[in-house]
Amino acid sequence: MAKTVGRLAPSPSGRMHPGNILAFLVAWLSARSVSGEVVLRIEDLDRVRCTPEWAEILKDDLTWLGITWDREAPPQRDRDSAFEEALDRLKDMGLVFPCWCTRGVLNASRAPHATDGHWIYPGNCRNLTPEERLAKKGLPSYRLIVPDREICFTDRLYGERRENLARECGDFVLKKADGSYAYQLAVVVDDIACGVTEVVRGCDLLGSVPRQIYLTELLGGKTPEYMHVPMLLGPGGRKLSKRDLDLDMGQLRARIRPQRMLGELAFRVGLIDSSREISAAELISEYSPEKLSKTDVELGNDFCGCLLA
Ligand code: GLU
Q1: Ligand 1 contact via 208 beta carbon (within 6 Å)
Q2: pLDDT tens-digit map of 256-292
Q3: Whose Cα sits closest to atom 5 in ligand 1?
Q4: Whether this model's pTM surpasses 0.85
């Protein structure tokens, strides 16, 4: 059987919070528990929010946690030519069109919402004539034409899922009007280039899988296995955020040992049956995806108390 290749794909836009740590921990355990390889890839497509300084801090934080990697792929800020080449291939297949719709235009078109909250693209610019295109002002984004068929996959934790891309998502953006590449394109090009066989990450990205499977097929890659990890929520069920500095690694590292942090997290999501100090390496033998909670886990106010006690 082919060797498992997992990946850690952090966006260096701030210090990690417990939800990020959990997703990286499970991605790491999943690969390490089958003696697989782990690739680190810095996802810094957003050149304003992501910085090389944050990337260095992130790597240092992962190392402190004992979440190691075997090789590092080039950061996405150095991958423009690979993304452009993939875009050109898709253009050559006749599957890409320029789109001048702004958020305001899409709002006004009253297109329905997809499950993850974005607009289902209503097709405004799909069939413009060459003359109509020439008459447009400003730089376009580029969208991929999606098929009217269901894409099915089985997530290792959340089970069988399906989505009809044309009806539930619509033609989606590959390159933005500001010239930057969209996450969906970059992640697929890079996962293929890194030889990734399993994608393990937070379940906020579960809704992206059908788009990524479709792109992987078009670009001739092998579809990886997918597993999404439940979200950790703050007190009252609110989303944790790097911007709100929710229990970020800076605060945690100053006060506790990594084993304390990992043990508490592993306990909260069901990987171990009591809260105790445990290292990432010791968690490998405890790991089994069936143990993981399938629902989001709320960290009450007691979470900080437990950690810092
Ligand atoms: N870079 C994304 C993040 O930090 C993860 C993307 C992915 O795993 O596909 O949330």
Answers
A1: no
A2: 899 999 999 999 999 999 999 999 999 999 999 999 9
A3: 9
A4: yes
